[in-house]
Every structure is written in structure tokens, then in C-alpha cells.
Amino acid sequence: MSADTLAEDTDITIALHRAGWQVVYQEHARAWTEAPSSLGQLWKQRYRWSYGTMQALWKHRRSLIDRGPSGRFGRVGMPLVVLFQILTPLCAPLIDLFTLYGVIFLDPVRSLLAWGALLLVQLLGAAYAFRLDRENYRALAVLPLQQIAYRQLMYLVLLHSCVTAATGALLPWQKLKRTGEVETPRAPEAVR
């Protein structure tokens, strides 16, 4: 594993694609890890991830002009990562600002209906993903909180990462504090 970026998983995935390897999704993969236990820890983790993704994109920027598998990834994969990991999250708050503007200065009912329609489309997309993965739909109950709070937090984290990258500052690893609350599940006992 390279230590060139803070998002080593993104870095190795891009490197494998560029080398012509196939990276596949493993539906039944399992990992036991601790989630951040505080808002500050969540910020540090997401800040490291978004900054590390930008580092990986910069490191592999040559793939945009390469030939072969590297170039194919560069012309398709790299723009998609930029679009969905950087540009879209940075523009997401505009939806809320336009809605707020519409509520205050234009037609509040139409503005809220448009905003609600957008949330409905996101809910339907999430429900479809849950259906494909056979997940419990109850988790969708927190989607409004994700749209109102988490999305804004991630916008600020990404903005912070962009400023850090633009100024050329180096970000340390920022290791999360471990609480030891996660236990490895025990193997099921053999049935006789």
C-alpha cells in the first residue's frame, strides 16, 4: 500500500484500474470497525477521506491522457469521481438556498413542493437501493435528518478539504480515538 495519500483504499483502487485489473464488488464482504463516536471524530474522519480522495485524484491525474486501461479509467472514472465526490456535494446546499429564497421572496408553496419532490426522488432512489440489497426499510426514517444535518456537515467538510488542497497544506493522518465498543461476532456453534 502506498502512503502517498490519506485515502489508501481510493488510491489502490485507482492504481489497480489503471493497471488493467478488474475491481469487483463483493456483496457479502464483512468488516468490523468502529464508527466515529463524536461529531469531532466524524469531522476528522470525513475530512481525511475527502482530502485523501483529492490527493488520489491528483496523484493519478495523468490517467486523463494515458492510453490503454489507464486512459479508459482516466476519461471515465476520474470525471465520475470528481462529479459525485466533489462537485455534486459542493453544489448540494444551493438546493436549500434556492428553496429558502423561493419561500421568502417567491411562492412559498411552489418552492416547498419542488423541494419536497426532490426529497421524494431521493427517498425513492434510496428505497430502491434498500430493496436491491434486501435491507430493512426502517433505516429510511433517518433520511430527513441526513438531508438536513449530515449533508450540510459533509458540505462544510468538503469545503474545508478544498481549501486545504488549494493552499497546499498537508493534512496529518488524524487517527480516530478507539473506544473498544466493537466486538468480533462469535462463530455460530455447530448444530448436532
TrEMBL record:
Domain Glycosyltransferase 2-like: 4-113
Record keywords: Glycosyltransferase, Membrane, Transferase, Transmembrane, Transmembrane helix
Transmembrane feature ranges: 80-106, 112-132, 153-173
A Pfam entry, by short name: Glyco_trans_2_3
Gene Ontology molecular function: any one: glycosyltransferase activity
Domain of life (superkingdom): Bacteria
Family in the record: Belongs to the glycosyltransferase 2 family.
Name listed for the protein in its UniProt record: Glycosyltransferase like family 2
